[in-house]
Design a protein that fits this description.
By secondary structure, the chain is α/β, with parallel strands linked by helices. It folds into three domains: 10-56; 64-238, Oxidized Rhodanese, domain 1; 247-327 and 341-463, 3-Layer(aba) Sandwich (Oxidized Rhodanese, domain 1). Helices cover 28% and strands 15% of the residues. The protein has 14 helices and 18 strands. It has helices spanning 10-22, 31-36, 38-56, 74-82, 84-87, 148-157, 177-190, 205-208, 249-257, 272-275, 343-353, 370-381, 392-396, 453-463; strands at 70-72, 96-101, 109-110, 117-122, 133-135, 140-142, 166-171, 198-204, 219-220, 246-247, 264-268, 300-304, 308-309, 316-317, 339-340, 360-364, 386-389, 425-430. Strands 1-8-7-2-4 form a five-stranded parallel β-sheet, with helices on both faces. A five-stranded parallel β-sheet has the order 10-17-16-11-13. Strand 16 (360-364), helix 12 and strand 17 form a beta-alpha-beta unit. Helix 1 (10-22) packs across helix 3 and helix 7 (177-190) crosses helix 12. The N and C termini lie far apart (47 Å).
Length: 464
C-alpha cells in the first residue's frame, strides 16, 4: 500500500473493500491498472459501493406475491380493498388511493370500500402531456418531467397526503396505456414519494379482474368523484431530493463519449427497428413535407453510442391471452395481461442485454415514456441504480449540423452540442431535409455551457 499514490483519495481506498467483498468470485482489482486509470476505478468503486448498500438491506423477492409495494398482484389488491386497515403495509397511516387510467373495455373501474379506499379516474394516457415542454438551459425538452407546482397540483386534486397515503396506479385496458401510467408513477418517485407507499397493479384491470379471473366482483360502473376543493399538500414536505433520477444532454454526451463506458448500462427502449435506423423516429410536429402538413422526423437515425437494444415490451408478458378479455369478438394479443415478467426473468433479461452487477442503468427512448418502464423496473422491482435521460431521442436526434424543413441550419459546424458524430452516436442515416424537424420549437441556446437548468429549478422548488 505504501506505493499507492497519495493523490488517490483516502475515501476511495476505504471504499475498496466494498468492491472486493461485493462479489469475491468475479471482482478483480489490478493495482497497476488502478493507478493508471484512477477515474475509471473510482467510478467502479462508487457504483459497487452504491450497489452494496442498495442490496445489503434489500433483497428482491422471487415472486410478486411477496411484494407489498412497487408492484402488486390482483390478489394482494383484493385484500387491500377488503380490509385496508388489516393488510396495509407497515408504516402506512393513510388511505389506499387507486388511480385508474381509463375504464376497462366494458367501462368499469376498481371499486372503493366507502371508508379508507378510494378510486379516481385519470385519462388513459396517464398524467403525461407530450406537448408540455421545459427548457434545460440548452433547448426545450418535449414532454419533460412536470414541475413541482404541477406535481403539487396533481396530488391536491385527489387530496393525496404525501406523508400518509398509499397510491396505486392501475391501467384499465392494456396496450400502450401501461407506459403512460408508469410514467405517472415515476413522476411521484422523482418528486420524493416514499417508495413503500407507491405501487402499480401488475397487469391491466381488464385482464386481472375479468370474468375469466373470477374477480369481476371488484369492479363497479363509476369511480369516486374527486373532492370539489383541492387540498393544500406539497411534495416539499417530504424533504427528499431525487432529481438525480434524471440526467440531461450534457451528462448523456459525457457518458456516450467515454472510451469504455465502464460502470454504465445504457438501455434504448424504443424498439429494434428504431434502434437499427430501419424506421425513422417521429417528432411531435406534423409540419413537414412539400405542403408542411406531413409527419416530421429527427434529422438523423440510429442510437446513442454504447446503448443496447432493449425494447420496453421485453419487460412484459404479451402472449398469455386465454379469453376475449376486451370483448372485441376474438382472442388475440390485445387480450394479453401486460404483466411484468417475474423478477428472476427480469434479472436474466438484464444480464443477457449486458448489464453487469453494480452498473448504473441509463435509460432513454423517443419521448421519455417507454424508457420509464425500464427506469421503474430497475428502481422499484430490481433495486438497481438508475437515471433516465429525459430528453431522449426527440432531443438527441435533433442536434445535428443539418438543414431543417424551413431551410435553417439546426446547429453550426463545430458546435459542442452536435450529437450526430461517431463520438456520441451510431449514425445510421439522415432524413431528407424536407421531412426534418424544424429547430424552432426547441429554442436552442447554442452558446449554453450547461443543460442542467431543469434540475436546478426542481431543486430550488424543493428547497423553498
Amino acid at each position: 500500500m505504501q506505493n499507492i499514490s497519495k493523490k488517490i483519495a483516502f475515501s476511495t481506498l476505504m471504499a475498496l473493500p466494498m468492491v472486493l467483498f461485493s462479489d469475491p468470485f468475479t471482482t478483480h482489482i489490478d493495482i497497476h491498472q488502478f493507478l493508471n486509470h484512477k477515474e475509471r476505478v473510482v467510478t467502479e468503486v462508487q457504483n459497487s459501493t452504491r450497489y452494496f448498500y442498495r442490496n445489503f438491506f434489500h433483497r428482491t423477492p422471487r415472486s410478486y406475491s411477496r411484494f407489498k409495494s412497487g408492484i402488486i398482484t390482483p390478489k394482494r389488491l383484493t385484500k387491500y380493498i377488503d380490509n385496508w386497515s388489516k393488510y396495509k403495509p407497515r408504516g402506512v397511516e393513510g388511505r389506499l388511493v387507486i388511480i385508474q387510467a381509463g375504464a376497462t373495455s366494458d367501462g368499469r373501474f376498481l371499486k372503493s370500500n366507502g371508508r379508507d379506499v378510494v378510486t379516481y379516474q385519470i385519462p388513459a394516457g396517464g398524467s403525461c402531456d407530450p406537448s408540455y415542454v421545459r427548457h434545460d438551459g440548452f433547448s426545450n425538452v418535449p414532454g419533460a418531467m412536470i414541475t413541482g407546482e404541477k406535481m403539487d397540483g396533481m396530488i391536491n386534486m385527489f387530496h393525496l397526503d404525501p406523508k400518509k397515503d398509499f397510491v396505486l396506479f392501475a391501467v384499465g385496458e392494456g396496450s400502450t396505456s401501461m407506459r403512460e401510467v408508469v410514467r405517472s408513477a415515476w413522476s411521484l418517485v422523482y418528486w420524493g414519494w416514499n417508495k413503500d407507499r407507491l405501487a402499480i397493479l401488475n397487469g391491466s384491470v381488464d385482464y386481472d379482474f375479468s370474468e375469466h379471473s373470477g374477480l369481476d366482483k371488484y369492479l363497479v360502473d363509476t369511480p369516486d368523484t374527486p373532492p370539489a376543493v383541492p387540498s393544500n399538500f406539497t411534495m416539499k414536505s417530504l424533504n427528499k431530493d431525487r432529481t438525480d433520477r434524471h440526467i440531461y444532454i450534457d451528462k448523456m454526451m459525457k457518458i456516450a463519449s467515454s472510451r469504455r463506458q465502464r460502470g454504465y448500462f445504457i438501455a434504448d427502449a424504443r424498439g429494434t427497428d428504431e434502434y437499427n435506423g430501419l424506421i425513422k423516429s417521429k417528432t411531435a410536429d406534423i409540419t413537414c413535407g412539400p405542403n408542411h402538413d406531413e409527419q416530421c422526423y429527427s434529422p438523423f437515425q440510429g442510437h446513442i453510442r454504447g446503448a443496447v437494444d432493449f425494447p420496453y415490451t421485453d419487460l412484459l408478458v404479451l402472449n398469455d391471452q386465454e379469453s376475449d378479455v376486451n370483448g372485441d369478438g376474438k382472442v388475440d394479443k390485445n387480450d394479453a395481461s401486460f404483466r411484468f415478467k417475474s423478477p428472476k426473468m427480469l434479472k436474466r433479461l438484464y444480464r443477457k442485454k449486458g448489464y453487469r452487477r453494480g452498473d448504473k442503468v441509463i435509460t432513454y427512448c423517443r419521448t421519455g415514456r417507454k424508457a420509464t418502464l425500464i427506469s421503474y423496473t430497475s428502481e422499484m422491482i430490481l433495486n438497481y441504480d438508475v437515471a433516465m435521460y429525459d430528453g431522449s431521442w426527440i432531443q438527441w436526434g435533433e442536434m445535428a449540423n443539418r438543414t431543417d424543413v424551413n431551410g435553417s441550419t439546426i446547429l453550426p459546424q463545430g458546435s459542442r452540442w452536435i450529437t450526430d458524430s461517431s463520438k456520441y452516436s451510431v449514425n445510421l442515416g439522415y432524413t431528407d431535409p424536407i421531412y426534418t424537424q424544424s429547430k424552432q420549437p426547441y429554442a436552442i441556446n447554442e452558446s449554453s455551457q450547461s443543460s442542467k437548468e431543469i434540475q436546478r429549478e426542481d431543486r430550488r422548488y424543493l428547497s423553498k
